[in-house]
Design goal:
GO biological process, one term: monoatomic ion transmembrane transport
Strand order of the largest sheet: 7-6-8-9-10-15-16-17
Number of strands: 30
Number of helices: 28
Subunit structure: May form heteromers.
Pfam families: ANF_receptor (PF01094), Lig_chan (PF00060), Lig_chan-Glu_bd (PF10613)
Main location: membrane
Structural class: alpha/beta
Shape: elongated
Largest sheet: 8 strands, mixed
Strand content: 15-25%
GO cellular component, one term: membrane
Length: about 900
């Protein structure tokens, strides 16, 4: 019975629904929409199924809408002309008011022009080329992620792993070329460069792809960004696997056009792509998406029964959401059938029929651009004529599938979490925000991003010859057997040592840049050869300068930096009558005198409080006594124990001061026999004496900047020219000083140590380094090797070999007189003397005041008790005499004790 009731209710509802539908259909208006897809491709088949489900779902949710989409599907058969012909047919014969598609960017170029001409919105969920900009084609809407949206995520990956060079590999059509400008700009922002662009024709054969891959193998760069269709990408990676380019050390990054279809590729192709990274559009999980996926797979089997099981991709979701956006816009725009304008026949069209111009176009376009909702693909927003995509997945192809290793968003950069609320900083420079990657060759070690190809050409190393200092760099003739050029010198040995310390083999060959054949050539010209890519690296005594760094990259310096002067030394004895005052600074002299007077006063006061008869003399004699106390110690003069303690500490300070004074004075009288004739540049400028520099050096411009007259600046060939000009002196046609870089000066002094010295540095420089091409990946590795060399004993041994032992020449470095002794040099003894004197005086005053306080009140009381009695003078005198005798005996007793203490102290002092 219950079953019959359910059946009756079901039939009633079905009948009611049918009646309501008939009533509704009588009121609805048809909105004709053209759909142009490549129905023979995977994307076309997936989108076709999604579109049909989308129409059903939309009107099931909105049964009361007064418009109904009427779809007219056309197959463009992957041909641009066929796609344009299909659009013309839809515009002429069906008066479509919107077109969904076409599928390829090359097709969309012409179709979008038609839509713009006839004011019919063209909405494509697959054409990603930036050339289809809404500014030039306002009626073209990209309901997909534009190529420019993903380049920032690709740059973040490259920045994270520190790669400096990237080679883009792209299909040579509108789709492929459209990403290049944005990719170049964003890579420049992270200091990465594109040394080569590999464009592959979309109809390229296996042999042509293989030939291009072999060309890429001969290059140093190992980081490749692949941007092409799924069909061409499948062939490309299959060939890359065959020739061994999917092995350890290679880096492959695929764009979303290929990564979004990774699940639809043949398993053998996916396996060939093992180790590749990819940028894939992010789709948030939802219950609606799960339900749709189940229904989609069921419908897909019915729509394509003869095809292998298709995989739902992001393009299927975008096509679904696009239908919803167009259906909402059709309802919102309130279109009517009468709003069309007939135009005359167009001569350029193959059809002779006229094409109607939609008057509803602007309203429909406006409604589409204002559509915003939460779709199956995520938040669907077509503002500015493009789908606003804010997040991508970063995938790693492993086995026959892929796994997500991280996410990228415009707000938070790279992170491991897809929830944007958990991240509040941009992650650029660390790999901790990505899960472990399985790189090509099943390696977990991050590839360096470049390699020296074993079958490629050797590194071209330019070396300069004909320089003034062959000990720094010198080149020999070619070897008769091997034809290789041999080089020697300090710069060469450090370079070769750095190459040996690299963690990989770096074959190279020397090429001579001869400056002797053309004297007008300079080191700027030598460095410029690297900029012109005639050399990969320039090795020599090359100063790191700002103007050169604009064109090349320098390694870390391998020598000491700075510019100094070579000047003769003079032999003269200082005959100053007041030289005996120089060992101590004026402050030290003043402090010593003050401490001397203070110590004398303290001892005098201590003896005064101790009733020493030597301090009861007239004032002049007391002053003499005070000075005597400060200089001598005798039993008869100083009696108190505290006075002797102060005196011993003071005498200890005098002994230290005397020894230091004697040593300093002796040093001044001997060392000052060798003094530089010139001590600073200002002295040369004031006297107007001529100076010399190395011929062809940039030092000349520096001297002119410092204020030297051009007539006073003379070029010389080092080192003999330096020696001759300095020997003559400025009065005999020579110069007063030679100004050059410190490494050259040290080399000169190693050969001419006697009679010359170095003054300075007077100017800062960055030192000598090696020049490489801008963005060269070798810069960091060679710099690290140089840092390892200069931070150990190796550099000392190399310098001893080519320059000699610098310790053997006392003139290497600035010669200056011995410094005077300052107050800080004797802070310890001075503080000890002051503290001892002050403490002794304070203690003595406390004892003296306490004794007077005890004696004073007793005398006052006796005076008040004794009555004034004149007749008792004799008795009073007797009492006073008795009291005096008692006090005298007590004093003798105390003095006796003091004498015994004094005797002990004298004996101790004598031993000290």
């Amino acid at each position: 019975m219950a079953t019959r009731v359910r059946i009756t209710m079901f039939l009633f509802l079905a009948f009611s629904s049918a009646v309501a539908q008939n009533i509704t259909e009588s009121r609805v208006k048809e909105f004709h929409v053209g759909v142009v897809l490549d129905l023979g491709t995977t994307v076309g088949k997936v989108a076709h199924t999604s579109i049909s489900i989308a129409v059903e779902d939309f009107y099931a949710v909105h049964p009361n809408y007064t418009t109904r989409l009427v779809l007219h599907v056309r197959d463009s058969m992957t041909d641009d002309v066929q796609a344009a012909s299909a659009v013309l047919d839809l515009l002429e014969n069906y008066n479509v008011q919107a077109i969904i598609g076409p599928q390829k960017s090359s097709q969309a170029v012409f179709v979008s022009a038609l839509g713009n001409k006839h004011r019919v919105p063209i909405v494509s969920f697959t054409a990603t080329s930036k050339s289809l900009s809404s500014r030039s084609l306002p009626y073209f809407v990209q309901a997909t992620a534009c190529d420019s949206a993903q380049v920032s995520s690709i740059a973040s990956i490259i920045k994270t792993y520190g790669w400096r060079e990237v080679v883009p590999i792209y299909v040579d059509n509108n789709y492929g070329r459209g990403i290049i400008p944005d990719l170049v700009n964003v890579l420049e922002g992270i200091d990465a460069h594109i040394p080569y662009r590999s464009a592959i024709d979309e109809s390229a054969t296996s042999e042509q792809i293989t030939q291009e891959l072999y060309k890429l193998m001969t290059m140093q760069t190992r980081v490749f960004v692949v941007h092409m269709s799924s069909s061409l990408g499948s062939l490309f990676f299959t060939k890359a696997k065959e020739i061994g380019m999917m092995s350890k050390g290679f880096v492959w990054i695929i764009t979303d056009g290929l990564a979004n279809l990774i699940d639809s590729l043949n398993p053998s192709v996916v396996e060939a792509m093992n180790g590749a990274l990819g940028v894939k559009s992010y789709v948030p999980k939802s219950t609606e998406l799960d339900n749709f996926t189940m229904r989609w797979y069921m419908r897909s089997r019915n729509d394509h029964p003869n095809d292998p099981t298709l995989k739902l991709s992001i393009f299927g979701l975008w096509s679904y959401d696009t239908i919803w956006a167009v259906a909402q816009a059709a309802e919102k725009a309130e279109v009517t059938k009468t709003k069309f304008q007939r135009l005359p026949a167009l001569k350029n069209y193959s059809s002779s029929k006229t094409v109607e111009n939609s008057r509803n176009g602007p309203a429909v376009l406006k409604a589409i651009l204002q559509t915003k909702f939460d779709g199956l693909s995520g938040y669907f927003d077509l503002t500015d004529g493009q789908l606003q995509v804010s997040m991508f997945q970063i995938i790693n192809v492993v086995g026959k599938a892929h796994r997500v290793i991280g996410f990228w968003s415009a707000q938070n950069g790279i992170s491991q979490q897809s929830d944007q609320r958990r991240a509040n900083t941009t992650y650029w420079g660390t790999t901790h925000n990505l899960n472990i990657v399985i790189w090509p060759g099943e390696s977990t070690e991050v590839p360096r991003g470049w390699e020296i190809p074993t079958k490629g050409k050797k590194l071209l190393v330019g070396i300069v010859t004909g320089g003034s200092y062959p000990k720094y760099i010198d080149a020999n003739e070619e070897d008769s057997l091997t034809g290789e050029i041999k080089a020697s010198g300090l710069a060469i040995e450090i370079f070769e040592e750095a190459v040996e310390r690299l963690p990989y083999a770096l074959p190279f060959e020397y090429i001579i840049f001869n400056t002797t054949e053309n004297v007008s050539l300079s080191y700027d010209d030598f460095v410029n050869q690297v900029y012109l890519k005639k050399y990969d690296i320039a090795v020599g005594d090359i100063t790191i300068r700002y103007n050169r760094s604009l064109h090349v990259d320098f390694t870390l310096p391998y020598t000491e930096s700075g510019i100094a002067m070579i000047v003769p030394v003079k032999e003269s004895v200082d005959k100053n009558a007041w030289i005996f005052l120089k060992p101590l600074t004026p402050g030290m002299w003043f402090g010593t005198i003050i401490l001397f007077i203070y110590t004398g006063i303290v001892i005098w006061l201590l003896e005064l409080l101790g009733n020493n008869k030597n301090v009861s003399d007239p004032i002049p004699q007391q002053l003499a006594t005070m000075i005597y106390f400060s200089l001598f110690e005798e039993k008869e003069k100083v009696r108190r124990l505290t006075s002797r303690i102060v005196l011993v500490i003071w005498l200890f300070f005098l002994v230290v001061l005397k020894s230091s004074y004697t040593a300093s004075l002796t040093s001044m009288l001997t060392v000052q026999q060798l003094q530089p004739t010139v001590t600073n540049v200002d002295e040369l400028l004031k006297t107007g004496q001529p100076v010399g520099y190395g011929r062809g050096s940039y030092i000349k411009g520096l001297l002119e900047e410092l204020g030297f007259d051009a007539s006073k600046i003379k070029p010389y060939d080092a080192p003999e020219g330096y020696y001759n000009s300095l020997s003559k002196g400025s009065k005999n046609g020579g110069v007063a000083a030679i100004i050059d870089e410190i490494p050259y000066i040290k080399l000169f002094l190693s050969e001419h140590c006697k009679g010359y010295t170095m003054v300075g540095p007077i100017y800062k420089t960055a030192g000598f380094g090696y020049a490489l091409q801008k963005g060269s990946p070798l810069v960091g590795d060679i710099s690290q090797a140089i840092l390892n060399i200069t931070g150990g004993d190796t550099i000392i041994q190399i310098e001893k070999k080519w320059i000699g032992d610098q310790n053997n020449c006392q003139n290497v470095g600035t010669i200056s007189g011995t410094g005077s002794l300052t107050f800080d040099s004797f802070a310890g003894p001075i503080i000890a003397t002051g503290v001892a004197s002050t403490a002794s005086l304070v203690v003595a005053l406390i004892i003296y005041l306490s004794k007077n306080k005890q004696v004073g009140p007793e005398n006052g009381d006796s005076e008040q008790i004794s009555p004034p009695n004149n007749g008792g003078d004799e008795e009073s005198q007797c009492q006073q005499a008795a009291r005096a005798r008692g006090m005298h005996q007590q004093t003798n007793k105390v003095m006796g004790n003091d004498e015994r203490i004094h005797s002990l102290w004298v004996s101790s002092s004598a031993r000290f």
